[in-house]
């Protein structure tokens, strides 16, 4: 039975129920991603959206799950529009569930706009090239793998590695450097979205942001591990919808942190399998790449707006496998990656960022004179080259013994130890300015003979190297 209602249609009775999926027959003109209200026999209303449409049928995913739904008594109302989120500047400082409903005990914010959670594609010709570095206060990022306004730079982690601690520290410390050009450092906010996390992890994030005072500039979207997996597919879209409103209509610089994208992809695989879609690598759907791109590409700066969206997705690599489909496809879409090292973590280094496999493709355009410091690029190149050589020296020392190394090679071993335990390693609450990071880099380079510094200019050596030696 089907009748017109709510600008769409209403159906009493469904064809079948499979997991979080409801299949409805006898409907026509239903749109992809259309919002649906599902009413069970007790009158309780749940929300969902259309995943697939046919000539006279529709496949609906139910956000709260299908427990308690009967085939004959279930009513399905098609509302005639895609899922929309009420967005407002008042959402900063608040905590929401994965669908944008407040869960902090406060009233629902007054909406300034109802926005489609699927967003609007940005015309490539309207994009502005990302410039200006975000200061995270973490030397391994600011000095070697800088995050640029308008960039998407994921963090590849592994099970048990401290990516949650790193995410919380970035939220507490991230800001725009004082020397940045053409940006208002007071207009920087953060949208934080967590998917499939445990209750204790969610509580850690809340307490960390409240204790540091960072919550006033943060909007949190939390999808917990015991929440319906289907809700995880909406959580990052809801967060990015708010970010687009703040960036392009309120002209704020928005940093979006998404953790853990692997949980998102697991939910996507689960729904795909229920729909009997042809699986691809490791059972993930063949459209995983385009689905991830629909999230990651909602990033950047556009002409006519003084705001920007920068993305920092965090994902865990199963078995620390960087070739796993989730990090593999993410790396193709984004502008680099930051990789966490289990070996450094076991040595007590925090944050355990592996410099050699990490890369920020836009770093060169966000640093230098007027943005960070004139010697930044050359210093980073020298540190990278020296640390790469350290790996060769360590391999040689494991064969012939450290006592057989030349004095120069032993200086590289000293440099490697200082680089890992003084430059990479820092405290959970240690917030280093970019200038402090660069000066520390020169101090670490003082472990090497001056003639080994081939990536920096003579002028830079004269200005900074001797200072590092004296210190």
In short:
The chain is of the alpha/beta class and 471 residues long.
Quantity of strands, as a count: 22
Strand percentage, roughly?
Answer: 15-25%
The low-confidence parts are 1-6
Examine the coordinates and then state which fold CATH places here, giving the name of the CATH topology of the largest domain: Rossmann fold
CATH architecture of the largest domain: 3-Layer(aba) Sandwich
Describe the structure.
The protein is of the alpha/beta class. The protein has three domains: 2-81, Thrombin, subunit H (Beta Barrel); 85-363, Rossmann fold, CATH 3.40.50.12240; 376-470, no CATH class. Helix content is 32%, strand content 24%. The protein has helices at residues 139-142, 163-173, 199-212, 235-248, 261-274, 288-296, 325-333, 342-346, 363-366, 376-400, 407-424, 434-445, 458-470; strands at residues 2-5, 8-12, 16-18, 21-25, 34-39, 45-53, 57-62, 75-82, 84-87, 95-97, 113-116, 127-128, 133-134, 147-148, 155-157, 188-197, 218-224, 253-259, 301-302, 308-316, 336-340, 353-360. An eight-stranded antiparallel beta sheet has the order 1-2-8-5-6-7-4-3, with no helix packed on it. It has an eight-stranded mixed beta sheet with strand order 10-17-16-18-20-15-21-22, sandwiched between helices. The longest helix is centred in the C-terminal third of the chain and has 25 residues, at 376-400. The protein is elongated and about 80 Å long. 45% of the residues are buried. Mean pLDDT is 89; it is low at 1-6.
